[in-house]
Amino acid sequence: MWTSTTSVLETFAFGSDPPWHGSGGSEAESTATSPTITSPNSNAPYASVEAKTPTATQISIGGWTLPLRRQQNVWNPSVLQVRPLVGLLALCVTSSCVFASFAVLLVSDGQPVSDWPLSPAVSLAIITAAANSALALAYMEAVPISWWYSTTRGRSIRALERQWRVTRSIVSAVAYLRHLSVLNIACILVAIVVIDGPLLQKASTVVSGTTTSDVTLYMHLLPELPSNFSGTVWNHRITASLASQLPFQDLAAQRSMKFEVPQCSGSEEKCTAKIQGPGVMKTDCTSRTWPITKEMIFSINATWGTWKQYDPSSYIGPAMILPAFQVSIEPIYDTISGGARTTVGLAGWRDFEGQYVETSCTLLPAIVEYNVLLQSGNVQLLEDLEQGKVVAKANNTRAINTTEEMAHVIQPNAFDPVTVGAGYLVSANATVMISTARGSKGFAPTWAFNVPSFNIEAAKHVVNFPGQAAGTGMLFSDPTPDIIRTMNELMLRGAIYASKWRNQAPFIDSGVEINQIVPAVKETRENLYKSDLRWFAGAAIFELLTALAVLPMFWGWWKIGQDLTLSPFQIALAFDAPLLRDVNSASGVWEIVQQLGRLKLKYGVDTNLRYAAHGEDVAYAPGRLGLACEQVVAPPRKGWAFRE
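^ that's the sequence the OP posted. Answer follows.
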């Protein structure tokens, strides 16, 4: 036979209403003095409830007084509710993070690593963390809204439990895929959206590349050769100085031009700029043409052209060895001081007839604007200058007007020694000769290069072979641009050397600026960020799909008239748990905590419900298993069975 004792707290905590919610009985009974419960361990009362009317305002337990203020809450459906609006705002943050990631990738693409104190990868990681946190927040706010909205439409306990489980973890969402809904999809996507992090990290990588920027170069470079730099002229003798021989040796050996510019001196930097330096200007060009006939070719007395070697009395005649490419440059010993004359002879023919064209030009010292490349402490000319952009004529060499003066005065000279040096580099006298070759009808005369007459200058200007000339029939290209380039480079090299000397202003034209301020375009080889938007697209799709999957879970929030969560106390209040029955049914979790927050609960066996078993082999627990006030709960023992 079972016996039981029921206390006020037992009734309050579990099965039936507290005494101030009496069902049945007279009004006098409901307003009777509250009973006193005696502690099992003491004769003193351990809990009492002051509830004389249904409008009780407090409860005293173990010496604590807990407020039980009734809230006059009303059902007030509205669009303006905090939790759904916070969730929707979080979805907007996620969408904004997608655009922010795109902006970071777009702006950083091609930018130097050194310009970004915070790398794009770190920025993307922060943005991704914000996006994923916002998605998690939105999902967290959407889950209770979705669940409570389902309850307002009527659902079975099984369906509501399944809906709750589906939203708890990806495992449950996958397990309930046979009941596929937007909840399954949202839960799965929220769980795997973290893949957007690695995808965005792949979207920004570091590569080696080139960047360009506008810079200003400050350089010390003489725009003219000083009049005391190259050497002297005396009695038709040109003596080159040691200083002028150094640029000649460097050019002959094809050494790079050393020129340090602090603003462009890094090993991974190069600058293109226009600088002013010494050079030549071409003037007074004249040409003469001599026809070449078959009779002249086979005549040992025929001559053409005026080209001569260093011995003025030595002329070149054919004698079966025909001049085809002749180049010379020499100083002008007349009233034009500091000048040079170039003579270029080019022969061309088809079969055994053609022409010989001889062109003579005057080169004068000038200030020339050069397009140059500055890199690793070197300077390089970027174009073959035939005329060049002449800024001004250089007049820093004193004129020698008479032969008598030339013979008796040692004249410092800037240009003539350079001309002589250039002559060794550009002069040529290449010839062709009559030869024989076996053909279909036996041996026949043909043309062949006279190889011993070739030097490097002649070899690099060959365009056709004798007997096979095409187009104009010329065997060689015009070397004039190469001559001018050689002169310019010799003089520019000399200016670089002379710029290291002090006090050169008296030896150049007045008004010429030695210190140059030059705008330039700087190219730097460095590590750059490279963005691959394909990886970004993958991450963005994941984030936006997740946001779109979470969005429908907010449906119907404007139809719910109170702030509802999935807190166990909110659920208990909704199920009309006796422990919370004196809390307003429209209260939120915070109001429940405000009213009963100090009440201590414990999970175990309610000792207020005691049962005794007679003649039974099974040990039954002396009470009901549940969550109740701490003072009336005992820990369950192993092996106890529960009848209720």
